[in-house]
Design brief:
With 137 residues, this protein is mainly α. It has 7 helices and 4 strands. The protein has helices at residues 3-17, 36-44, 57-63, 65-75, 87-90, 114-118, 121-130, and strands spanning 23-26, 81-84, 99-100, 103-104. The strands form 2 sheets. Strands 1-2 form a two-stranded parallel sheet. Helix 1 (3-17) packs parallel to helix 4. The model has no long low-confidence stretch (mean pLDDT 86).
């Protein structure tokens, strides 16, 4: 069984176990073919050796199409599951960002930093308002 099938099975089991509680499931953040921290330090030190590739919202959507479709299909089976897309914030103007000024949104190529995670606060606020402020014990 391949990794994608294992993920599908585990996600389905997880959602079935918690189906009675409102659950927020985040889709994947945009990935980058470089390490943002290294690139920002090189930029700060005027050692930029190459232009970094830009990622558009459309590119991110294409890269995540298969995984996103699987997650959406599974989540649709559970009324308590709410999906949120970090790209709505990280790619708000059609181009995905990995830093704002000198603040890194990522700690590596596909994991948000604390600062990047904090930028997603509106997603969580909306979820708690939509879910009636319900929290599981």
């Amino acid at each position: 069984v391949e990794a994608g099938e294992n993920f599908r099975i585990l996600l389905d089991r997880f959602l079935a176990d918690i189906n009675v509680k409102p659950t927020l499931l985040l889709l994947e953040v945009p990935r980058y073919p470089f390490f943002p921290k290294k690139e920002l330090v090189m930029d700060w030190a005027n050692l930029k050796l190459r232009p970094l590739p830009r990622k558009t919202t459309a590119e991110h959507s294409r890269e995540q199409k298969e995984t996103r479709g699987m997650i959406q299909a599974i989540a649709a089976e559970y009324a308590a599951v709410h999906l949120a897309d970090p790209a709505e914030i990280l790619c708000a103007d059609g181009t995905c960002v990995w830093h704002i000024g000198w603040e890194l949104l990522y700690k590596d190529d596909d994991h948000l930093s604390v600062y990047g995670s904090e930028r997603l606060a509106p997603i969580f606020k909306k979820f708690f308002v939509d879910a009636g402020g319900q929290r599981s014990p």
